[in-house]
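Figure 2 data, in text form.
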Amino acid sequence: MQLIDYKQIHDYFIIIVNANLDHVKLNKGKKFCDFVRKCYAVQTAVGIRRHMKSDKKSISLMRLLEQIKKCSRQFTYDFYTQCFPVDGGEWQKATFRNFTDDEKVFSEQKIEADIESLKKIAKTVENLVDQRVAHLDKRGYSEDVTYQDIDNSLDVFNKIACKYLALLTGHGYITLKPEVQYNWKSIFTVPLDIRKFES
């Protein structure tokens, strides 16, 4: 959820910068804007990478999916409705359908497909994190990971996380993007004056 929250803040920041590009250029704002973008990219890449760990000490989305895959034959629709009794609605069937081929038991292949999707997005950011962020690799770093690659990876991560949250909690999620309960955007409505700090 935190990663998706950072994405919505970053997305809005980019909208504001683009709408005020002449002002940003006039006031030599490129360095600060580049700093914000790089911080977002690093935070997101590391966050995604963190959720790929699957050893016993890790709390991660990948570990959860691997555990579900390992015992997929135990996840029957009968068992699921024992955990979440049908109460007039049929959301249980719709949710369960995302994980099964026969509507009776989980499909190992469907879980594996989600695991492969996570591995694919992890590959996008893995070398960036390992060779540029967490370590300085003497081989250097030659891959070209764009901000769009980072955003696309986060969108896939969000979709898969929501799918499994719905399964395990019984609550439907379209996105993990939180609805901020106060107007955090108001910072962009007033000028910041560095002279107050420097005087």
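Caption note: The two ends are 39 Å apart (CA to CA).
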